[in-house]
## 1
Amino acid sequence: MRDLALLVIIGWCFLQAFRRPWIGILGWTWLSIMNPHQLSWTLSTMPFAAAIGGATLLGLFMTKDRRDYSQSREGIVLLLFMAWMCITLPFSIIFSDSFDLWKRVMKIDLMILVAMVLIHSKRHIMLLAWVLVFSIGFYGVKGGAFTLATGGSYRVWGPESTYIEGNNEIALAIVIVIPLMRFLQMQMQAKWAKTTMTVCMALMAMAALGSHSRGALLALVAMGLVLWWRGKNKLLGAVVLLVLGAVMLSMMPQEWWDRMNTIKTYEQDDSALGRINAWHMAYNLATDRIFGGGFMVSSPGVFAIYAPEPGRVHAAHSIYFMVLGEHGFIGLFLYLTLFTMVFLSAGHLRVKGVAQPETRWLSDLGSMLQVSLAGFAVGGAFLSLTYWDLPYNLLILAVAGRRWLARKEWAHEKEEPLIWWPEFIKKRFAKKRAALP
């Protein structure tokens, strides 16, 4: 029954993608981020994301909906980064493995560019935020409940055969999405809805702690500091954050504390030493080769040449050193420039959005995007989610929000309101009854 329901939803998204490709973008994002088919019994190997992506590309040229082909600085830098990865590919040390990952990365980045063309209205932006929150919130809320039920004795893991399968990866994804949940909560009016979202955010934070990821802990601390700094009443904010942190940390077992304490004694931790060795290898590789080593450089042959400890082969587990080793200093410069621009665009929304009541939702969006990016910047220093879709979806939200603000659509364009599904169903049935003779 679950597989049939999933198949119906995916089929609907596929058909809608031809006529309304922005729905295809939402469906493709949902499949790419959440990977719901991995939770099914018979559909896990089906290329649903590719099918909806292809339908969306066709719909891009067939639809009568408005499309925005204007270039943003983020879009231009992303194109430059894609071009640089194409240049570095032929110089890959292990070409066959690099080519496979290159194809995957190019598909993701292409759909990000398409999304920037199709996502342009407030309704699109809000729905994309909901898709991201639901896709990761499903695992985060469930993982937080699991952590509470088990006292944190077991780790929270992501869905198998996905980018976020590991405990570190799912933890960073959860951290990135928590501020988006707060953004949606700020737009809610009903008290029960706000309370529900508060509970969900608390469970998400518990899931991040329950992953036993040290990078996630640092990312949560970074986000908490940004929220505290942005708050109007810093004394009250500090007290609230300290109390919440103390309550959550008190629920974690001694095993968790022992693992977190290795942050201070990293020189005695084999995993930490392996990462540091991989970082040195990436730096030496980038210094020796202007194009880097291409994708997939974590191999014994590469470590034998460039690592201080050749026998300690370890993934970099860092978005920065991963790009540095694979695409050199130029690639790292483009990557950092891209997300710096996203952060600045979010800041522009935060400052300019407060000017009018109709644009204050953009101020909320920009503020929470900056919090998400702070968590990504800190957590990503110790985790590998360099090419995954979720951080690039923050880019889409920032670019679409800034375009909306520039056009001042709030002054002359009527947006379709976001309504709850029960009300939507009532209206549909009312229209059908009115059409009957």
## 2
Amino acid sequence: MYKQVFVSVVLLLSLSLVQSAEDKDEVARDVGGDMADMDIMGALSDCNETFRIDMAYLLALNESGSFPDETDRTPKCYVRCVLEMVDVASADGQYDPDRTEAALMGIRGVRALSNVKETASKCADRSETCKCERSYQYIKCLMEAEIKMSEKS
């Protein structure tokens, strides 16, 4: 029971703006994606089993776009794990802007970024060799772009 509650809280904190099911379906149709094949909750739960992440890290990521301790590899590997499990990232570290758009628009409710796909394509151009670092920098790039755009509006 505690584990399920923890995972639910992690989901809500890491995704911050949860929309109704109708909104998610509408957004998924708008971006041409199908959210039904993205098991975000399962990915968060499974990845938390392997890469335990402190909720403070997720809060910091949502609020500032980065982790409080960027030398800690575990949260970065958690991000990689989640991205790979929902097929936003491939095992070889390539990112799918279409799936990124569907995931961010449908789950996080990102509205500040009007050009998620374009931003995701730019953020996907990564030079890091470590898959965990690469995934973290990808998410960080997207989060910082979202925060920057929301501050402008």
## 3
Amino acid sequence: MLAGPMLATALTVLALSTTPITASAAPASLDPDPFYSQTEAATGPVGTPISVRRAPDLLTFPGSAVWQVNFRSLNSANNPIVAVTTVIIPPNHTPDGPLLSYQHIVNALGTECAPSRALYSSDPRSTYREAVALNIALQRGWAVALPDHLGPTSAYGAARLGGQITLDGIRAVQKLPELGLTSSPVGIAGYSGGGMATAWAAALAPTYAPEINIVGVAEGGVPMNITKMANALGRDPHPAFGLAFAAALGLEREYPTELPLTSQLNGLGHALATDLTNACTTQLLITGAGRSALDVALSTSMLDNPDAISVMNDNSVELYPGVPTAPIYEWHSATDNLIPVDSVVATMARYCAAGATIQSVLGPNLDHLTVGAIGLPAAVDYLQDRFAGRPAPSNC
């Protein structure tokens, strides 16, 4: 599912009445495992590993070793946080062989829905059914890192945060000699909501993490401008409104002062927010099905709140002036009705004009997620060529 477009519906409640702030979004429940705790151990430069542990083997990835690494990163207020990434190393991986950081599509307000937890869950509401596709990369001998890119508070919708956590996770695993990834060439990939974290990581890397040797990026179906989506999307009831509402609540967790959403909710809105505090995708969809912003807000007005607009702009990669230096494979459908395709086209054109190497591919005119699945094999082949050192194609 997609974070950005669904977020836009709920963000129509962010420039609401002048009711004083009396509440804020409920935080996700603290994980009882101290490995996930935000502690004083989060010191030193970003990307500093705090601890590493061998995790149980997974039938999803037969024969592969699974490790979990927690590390120091920063949230959107530049405060230190402890973030986590899961590293899967296949038996045919050679020391300093390829490393793929794959950003899963994660729709969640609960920390138990993050990849490091959900990979071990038997609850069908939180399992990642697409995880088995990562065996395509593992069979090629690539190590795969799966960051919990929503962060320790499950700040669903905070795409820039996801990019930072992705890069800091790569830094951390490359600082651990026992993983054999110290000098590995790095590819990053993701689709839809995972594509947002990937696109942000690619854009931030030249200044935020220039030391990482990112040889290729594969990003698809990326919601590149959530401000535009918020202004364009209507307020009618929507079957996936629960995702929108959850994303707005997730952004409030990350920007509590700028987005005081909870103080603008009516009784139903507060009830839904409580129900969704620790929810994963299935519960988000069921709880919010058929609702709209008008159902949950005390009142509505134009999206003219400067703080709300600033937050949305700050999480819209189209509006970020930085340009990736790693070559990019980008794919989307020309008729995708969940993302502003013109923003994708404009962003790629801006990158091209700045000298970036871009291979932009139009998928078939099918639904958003189907195009993602259809385009994945070509994206993997693109990264294979980058790992092999072949020149990157460009259709700029």
